[in-house]
Amino acid sequence: MDDMHHLATRAVHAGREDLTDLGVHAVPIDLSTTYPSREMQAEAGRLDLLTTGARDDGMPVYGRVGNPTVDRFERALASLESTETAVAFASGMAALSATLLAVASAGKSHIVAVRPLYGTTDFLLESGLLGITTTFVSESEVAAAIRPDTGLVIVESPANPTLNEVDIRHLVAVCGDVPVLLDNTFATPVLQRPAELGAALVLHSGTKYLGGHGDVLAGVIACSEEFARGLRNVRYATGGMLHPLSGYLLLRGLSTLPIRMQVASENARILAERLTNHPAVTRVFYPGFNSDRPKNQMEGGGAMVSFEVVGDPADVIGGVCMITPAVSLGSVDTLIQNPASISHHIMDPDVRHDIGISDKLLRMSVGIEHVDDIWNDLTATFAGMG
Predict the structure, then answer these.
(1) Does residue 64 carry a catalytic annotation?
(2) 208 belongs to the catalytic site
């Protein structure tokens, strides 16, 4: 796909460039787990190439090594994120785990991470499960935390669930030669393209906005071809390959991503403003409300809103009718959850409180319903709080 096209056009056409020549309109779904070949020597040579992590544009060999439908999604996402390539995995955590393994295998087992992060990301980094050690810092402490064995700096912007933003350009500058991994799940490439700001790696939980309909689990890293080779090696060896049907659903989701983000973000902005003035709400977190936010980085405030309530947040979770009380985010319908009891429950409570995740905090993923219907559901729930 021509990178000179606007992002909205690339979202529709990237990964589909050859469909007319194939005589089809919808993307083919290749569900094969294995691919026949009578050329034994050629097959062995191709496997030798694939085990280096290189991309092979010939016929597939085995479903765990690569898949044509997944490959289409990877090329499309790379186009939207302005990176050389992308590598897809079975979940966002599988994508992050593969990245950490690739970095550690290169002899760099120390990670610097800026809190807050998604709760399971925080748990994985702190657990030492993958043979890494992690120093958790604030944005201003990153430079001082970097050591000779630091292989990666990990950050979310906007962060989950407080929606804190970091200055990506400045962070990249202070990290020097240490690559920065930016979790772009909340913003998506529609609102923010970290690679254009200097980030080496861009992580997405494709489960969220990229899929957009709550029916697919996926993760993806957009990066250079050089780093992608290590990721493909890990994926080949550990089996974290994205399923072809998921690749199809993600590619279909990308085509409406710009429109969905536009509507959901405008809904979120309106709701954030209304929540600020409601007596049942004590504090609202929304990127557009921060006058000190980084300039020329994120286009708008996004579709996530977090807020603290006066009463018991359980009353809100149990009281909403149209809004879905569930973990996850990024679907066409509005979801709400209490991070302290679900998405960030795995964290140490003292750490959770220290980084601004109170027990009264609610995180709302705003959908594309009419904004007044979302608001009326919230206010009716507030009125019934004890």
Answers:
(1) yes
(2) yes
Q: Which of 208, 235, 269, 363 is catalytic?
A: 208
Indicate which residue of 64, 229, 274, 283 is catalytic.
Answer: 64
| For range 2-9, the mean pLDDT | 87
Q: Which of 183, 209, 232, 269 is catalytic?
A: 183
By DSSP bridging, strand 324-325 and strand 335-337 are: parallel
Q: Write down the pLDDT at residue 386.
A: 62
List the catalytic residue out of 10, 108, 118, 269.
Answer: 118
- How many Å apart are CA 33 and CA 138, to the nearest integer? 45
Lowest-confidence region among 2-6, 53-57, 120-124, 213-217: 53-57
Contacting residues for 152 by C-beta, under 8 A, at least 6 apart: 99, 100, 103, 108, 111, 112, 178, 179, 180, 181, 201
Distances (CA, A) of 324 to 316, 333, 335: 11, 7, 5
Lowest average pLDDT, out of 42-46, 105-109, 202-206, 254-258, goes to 42-46
Give percent of the chain with pLDDT exceeding 70: 99
Find the helix or strand (DSSP H, E) in which 104 lies.
helix 92-105
Mean pLDDT of 92-116: 96
Q: Which tokens in the block code for residue 21? A: 């020549």
Distance CA 327, CA 212 (A): 14
Considering the domain 257-383, what is its CATH architecture? Alpha-Beta Complex (3.90)
DSSP designation for 34: B
